[in-house]
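Record Malate synthase, 570 aa.
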Amino acid sequence: MDIGTYGYPTPAVKKIESYYDVPEGVDIRGRYDAEFAKILTKDALKFVADLQREFRNHIKYALECRREAKKKYNEGALPEFDPATRYIREQEWVCAPVPPAVADRKVEITGPVDRKMVINALNSGAKVFMADFEDALSPGWENLMRGQVNLKDAVAGTISLHDKARNRVYKLNDQTAKLFVRPRGWHLPEAHILIDGEPATGCLVDFGLYFYHSYSAFRRTQGAGFGPFFYLPKMEHSREAKIWNNVFEKAEKVAGIERGSIRATVLIETLPAVFQMNEILYELKEHSVGLNCGRWDYIFSYVKTFQAHPDRLLPDRVQVGMTQHFMKSYSDLLIRTCHRRGVHAMGGMAAQIPIKDDPVANEAALELVRKDKLREVKAGHDGTWAAHPGLIPACMEIFNNNMGNASNQIDTVKREDAANLTEQDLLQIPIGTRTMEGLRLNTRVGIQYLAAWLSGSGCVPLYNLMEDAATAEISRVQNWQWLKYGVELDEDGLGEKVNKDLFDRVVEEEMARIEKEVGTVKFEKGMYKAACKIFTRQCTSPTLDDFLTLDAYNYIVVHHAKEGPVKALN
Ligand SMILES: CC(=O)SCCNC(=O)CCNC(=O)[C@H](O)C(C)(C)COP(=O)(O)OP(=O)(O)OC[C@H]1O[C@@H](n2cnc3c(N)ncnc32)[C@H](O)[C@@H]1OP(=O)(O)O
Ligand SMILES: O=CC(=O)O
Ligand SMILES: [Mg+2]
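=>
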């Protein structure tokens, strides 16, 4: 990796012999592969380019509005319900009826679009599989394009894999989970596809290519006339939902399918969005199939939104659970809002995963998952997320036992009591302590996650927990905030203040610990040192980077060009 003048890497440039057949104004800088060419057809690229051209200014405006909102919060404002849209919150209206194919979403498995995991997830016994181009995926060209190939084969029902090392063949069962696809957030570019000289918007590439190739088969085999289905991440305002709604309408028109065929669940995973839940559902009324509590990004967003509010610092990451008042209020209000509007209120992800070779620790982890799921189903959630196939029976049992034969609780658990939740409830500062171990864990996890991400894995097990982009973000922004405000670490009796010297020492010691834990060979071969450099810069920079992955993305872009080196984009 070459490091350019500004400290960013210059995209590696490799010479190519074969080109994709592209429509006018489209340039593919990603590696040529005959399999990818079946996805990157001229017509599919034209569909993506048309979306890009129609919506790019709307997207730019929405991102500009995010910057404006950030400025306001940094000057001391708090997120709030918008008086201008009070009528949407107060009037009675409902979303389009839930498609029968996805009425029952008790347990949804999530995972990256890796071929084996796609097959395993679809076979897992979960009601839904959310195939992830987002938190769980490192968005390099190979991962993205292979992911598209995998999803096309999955919807066609032809996906299979021969694991030669284990002499095991993977193929689909007769009964599979229903597929939802989560494209990237609005902020991420796709630097390998240039449209009119600019990088494409990542999520339009993810959505567009998948939709183009699979809508027809999906509606026949999975959606019973509806679909395809999507999860939409990281939105901050209903204007962003409106763009998605318009994208869906355009896609339906091009495909010649009924308006309202495409359905999406929006993740409420930013603090500003919790004040916009009615408005988001309203914008997507014909296309909505609920909201989901994306708890990890939500915690990240709480820190980010209050980056300039030293009176609102979070305690250690492990102490910010769903029973903290602000988190409970968010989940309760989400349930109330969804059920009032006739759609699913989905729960979120417990971070525990099965622990191999330690039955006692495994049972303790499972018990934490059960407790979390019991809280969700009793609160009125209609379903939940599982990170691993091994957790599905326990999650399913809890939802089945507490919901009887019902597919969901939309009409039965209205949660009118949550109607009185206020802005203060949603913003209440969490209780807890800030410790040296918290700082160390953030550092150790942040660096290891980023090292995995730079190497192509967007979701990894660390210390018996699932870590993905959302959980790693919490580690990063919390370190940044503690450093920025020189917080005093309590609980250890030493009263040490977090400053650059202390952080440098922690980084050095945690790097040594990582090397010991993973072994010197893996440590030297892996991306740990590069990850440490990026993570340290992000934690100590004078202004907080908006996203960990936006900066790190520059390190995984690899351009291919016929003429030799092309100009770097960053
Ligand atoms: C905050 C959020 O956004 S949450 C949503 C995003 N995060 C996710 O989607 C997490 C997805 N989960 C995962 O990626 C993985 O479970 C990890 C990384 C956490 C753990 O992975 P591992 O330690 O490799 O799991 P493990 O070795 O126990 O896997 C056992 C088997 O289950 C499979 N498996 C594990 N998780 C999944 C999954 N989520 N989907 C499908 N298959 C899975 C593995 O492929 C493996 O299959 P095999 O026996 O055929 O080889
Ligand atoms: O996407 C889910 C989250 O918790 O973040
Ligand atoms: Mg998320």
